[in-house]
Amino acid sequence: MGILYSVEHLSCINYQKKAGSKIDIVNIEPDIAWEDTSKYNLLVFIVKGSIRYYLENNTSQTEPEWKSVLFLANTQVRIESDSGARLIIIRISGTSQLCDTYSLRKLLYSEKYNPKKAITSLDANEILKSYLILLDNFISDGIKCISFYEMKIKELFFILRAYYPKGDLLHFFYPLLSTDMSFS
Hints:
By secondary structure, the protein is of the alpha+beta class. It contains 5 helices and 11 strands.
């Protein structure tokens, strides 16, 4: 569709002009790797295609479309795709609030962590898919406002709080919440 008054948006001091912002769209071309060592925790949402990612220790994992993966800050990650992929990257610092009254850390006290149930990715349900499609449309249209990104990240965590079981969230975010440095 395209946004109205694009010149005003582009000249705004809150307009994110470069890659590496709080939210980015990344297109992975076949057989060309995307690499990052972010000072932020990365939530990677696969909205098209499938990916194979490698961590610092060269272990690889494959994830299909409509999955999300968490990478901790300062982790060197390399992502490839045999047929191409489209990712939405969300950078978060520290631990976040699922909503104004429920922090991620509360999951440690309300649920029991079971290492045998550890998950490396989270399936996108219909609500999360709708959110990601709309977010992709906004960014593709040129909406790259820092304030807007902060609202969308808050909305994302609210969606996770409202539409995902606490046990799934604990197991997905456990590396971020864990104080076990050998695990982290």
